[in-house]
Amino acid sequence: MTWRIAVLGLLVACGGNAIDVVDTSDTEQGLELSAQSLHRSPLRHVQLETGIRMAYLEQGRRDGIPVILLHGYTDSHHSFDRNLPLLPERFHVFAIDQRGHGDSSKPDCCYTQADFAADVPAFMDAVGLDRASIVGHSMGSFIAQSVALEFPERLARLVLMGTAPTIAGNPVALDLKAAVDTLTDPVDAEFARAFQASTFFRPIPESFLDQAVEDSLQVPASIWQQALDGLIAEDHSDQLGEIRARTLILFGDQDVFVSAAEQAVLDAQIPRSRVITYEQTGHGLHVELPRRVSADIVDFLR
Fold it and tell me: What is the CA radius of gyration of the chain?
């Protein structure tokens, strides 16, 4: 596939770091977090008014600051496995599996940004939250932007990671779409691994990459296609000035999907925003630098 060749080229250009794995001593002073070490509830499910049966993890004090974590394209709540143990108990955290992903229901349709965004206030209603801060990564960051625009009264603060004003016209996304449109079930594991590996610049634990690939393989080919189509088709960049929530934009300077210039545009358009850039870090910045990124999020949300 053309896209796979392009991804492998990106990995070579990054010095191979994107597919390096590490043992229990990683680049952040021996941080290796297994699922067994996470002090959190078992995976739960709740039925939403939007028709989705949504899976989620919950941790922290029930009277704590509500925070919802939105993962990226073909990921799951496991995207935040390296961050959840670093979030203080004073945060009441919900890491959800978005529609079509993880252990949530996978209807034949609908996967526009608006569909994903509507699930967020529906989830909040189902678990009894009036307002919450939202942390979104990659696809999740665009869903978070949509929530901020369509449901501003439900949003406290906003954290956007691996984001941009829009994906419409993004050449990497368009190249990816050409490959994704050819996928059939079962999705090719080699393709899923190449895709996931391309999101990282620094070494990451092998167990994390394996889980990310497993998550991608749980997503049917039709949902790979519909979700990506929705991301590319919808462009609300001309509305970003309407976002009133305080916003933190986090960017890895080796991100192969979005650019530093796009972070500057976001920062200029969103009135109450600021940007933190992490050097020598890729699209999966919260995975590559869990301590630093989690600390910056905690400092912002407190």
Answer: 18
**Total structural domains in the chain?**
1
Going by pLDDT thresholds of 50, 70 and 90, the confidence category of residue 28 is low
* Mean pLDDT (whole number) for 48-62: 98
Contacts (Cβ under 8 Å, ≥6 apart) of 58: 40, 41, 44, 92, 93, 94, 127
Taking the C-alpha atoms of residue 158 and residue 156, their distance in angstroms, rounded to an integer, is 7
Active site residues: 138
Closest to 43 in 3D by CA, of 64, 27, 59: 59
Determine the structural domain holding residue 99 and report its residue range. Answer: 2-301
Tell me the C-alpha distance between 133 and 248, whole Å: 11
Structure tokens at 270: 């969103």
Average pLDDT across the chain, whole number:
90
pLDDT band at 160 (very low <50, low <70, confident <90, very high): very high
Which CATH number goes with the domain that contains 256?
3.40.50.1820
| Contact in structure between 176 and 228 (CB atoms under 8 Å) | yes
Residue 40: pLDDT band (50, 70, 90) is low
Region class of 119: left (phi > 0), else alpha (psi between -120 and 50), else beta = alpha
pTM for this model (two decimals) = 0.90
